[in-house]
Design a protein that fits this description.
Length: about 325
């Protein structure tokens, strides 16, 4: 049996073991006796958010990722800047790209009304990231018991969040620093099947690639034409966005990987997966077997949700997710 088949066969076991390894810190059903409507209320607010704007599903996954990769999953990404501190939200990696804050705010307000000071913002973010299920995806249980951090610094985003311009070796190193394998990195990148991107994240691939050519030769020429029509050179519109996938994407399939194989990966960090022998094999396998990718994605999301969490007496339970308790 190949290593990849073994990975697929034992994905469920891996998820169970991961849950067991953190059971002393995080637990599935943590709020069952503390605030039994916690996960239900978050799910309801996520559904409402997606009904207003379906892109919110992708936004909540990204919000969770950007939270966990900086200081761990402590909801530091939600903290607003103050006159004396520039928080993570001020980073070019987060503003104006992140979305879904209003979903977290609404869920937190409802939970504070019935279970004051019980449900952490970090847990709400982890629960809300499962909005991919509502977008047509799949389910996975999230162990809870995280507490909220008290610090959010814009400078920490620069060294912790991998930009969309990285090549495959740089991506592998960036994820390895957080404890992820290359296979887990490729699986998580598949989240780019939904959502949309700001023009500034890929404009150099269209008009200013390098000193030899103006556009990235690895991009499909028809796709380049479409992107240029949507994003004219020199545009100053900060709200100019394009879909990550132009073919009615859904988490029911793995079209992201098919796009990479067709040279239609929007970011450099997408298309680069085709340039490495190991990642190219995984891209091909995920493109052919969406069920394999979904199981690997769920396991990687679960692992990410437990990254450097605060538990016990560490941190706090914020009353307002955007403000540190006083």
């Amino acid at each position: 049996m190949s290593a990849r088949k073994l990975t697929c066969a034992f994905t469920t076991l891996t998820v169970v073991l991961l849950c067991q390894s953190v059971r002393s810190q995080l637990q599935v059903g943590f709020y069952r006796n503390l605030c039994n409507l916690a996960e239900t209320i978050v799910k309801e607010e996520v559904r409402k958010g997606i009904s207003r704007d379906e892109v919110v599903a992708a936004g909540l996954v990204r919000l969770h990722f950007h939270d966990c990769f900086v200081r761990g999953c402590d909801a530091s990404v939600l903290i607003d800047s103050t006159p004396g501190n520039s928080a993570e939200q001020d980073s070019l990696a987060n503003d104006p790209r992140l979305r879904g804050f209003e979903v977290i705010d609404r869920a937190k307000a409802r939970l504070e009304a019935i279970c004051k000071g019980v449900v952490s913002c970090a847990d709400i973010v982890a629960f809300a990231a499962r909005g991919i299920m509502i977008a047509g995806g799949f389910g996975y249980e999230v162990p809870a018991g995280r507490r909220d951090g008290r610090t959010s610094l814009v400078n920490e985003t620069f060294t912790n969040l991998p930009p969309p311009t990285l090549n495959v070796d740089q991506l592998t190193q960036a994820f390895a620093k957080k404890g992820f394998t290359q296979e887990e990195m490729v699986a998580l990148t598949g989240a780019h099947i939904i959502g949309r991107s700001h023009y500034t994240s890929f404009t150099e691939r269209l008009y200013n690639f390098n000193g030899t050519t103006s556009q990235d030769p690895s991009l499909d020429s028809t796709y380049v034409t479409q992107l240029k029509q949507r994003c004219p050179q020199g545009s100053k519109n900060p709200n100019l966005v394009v879909p990550m996938n132009t073919d009615c994407p859904s988490f029911r399939d793995a079209d992201y990987y098919k796009n990479v194989l067709a040279n239609c990966g929007l970011f450099t960090s997408d298309q680069t997966l085709k340039t490495n022998a190991a990642t190219a094999i995984q891209v091909n396998q995920n493109a052919r077997n969406p069920n394999l990718w979904r199981s690997e994605f769920a396991a990687a999301m679960l692992k990410m949700s437990q990254l450097d969490v605060l538990t016990g007496d560490a941190g706090e339970i914020r009353s307002n997710c955007r403000v540190i308790n006083r």
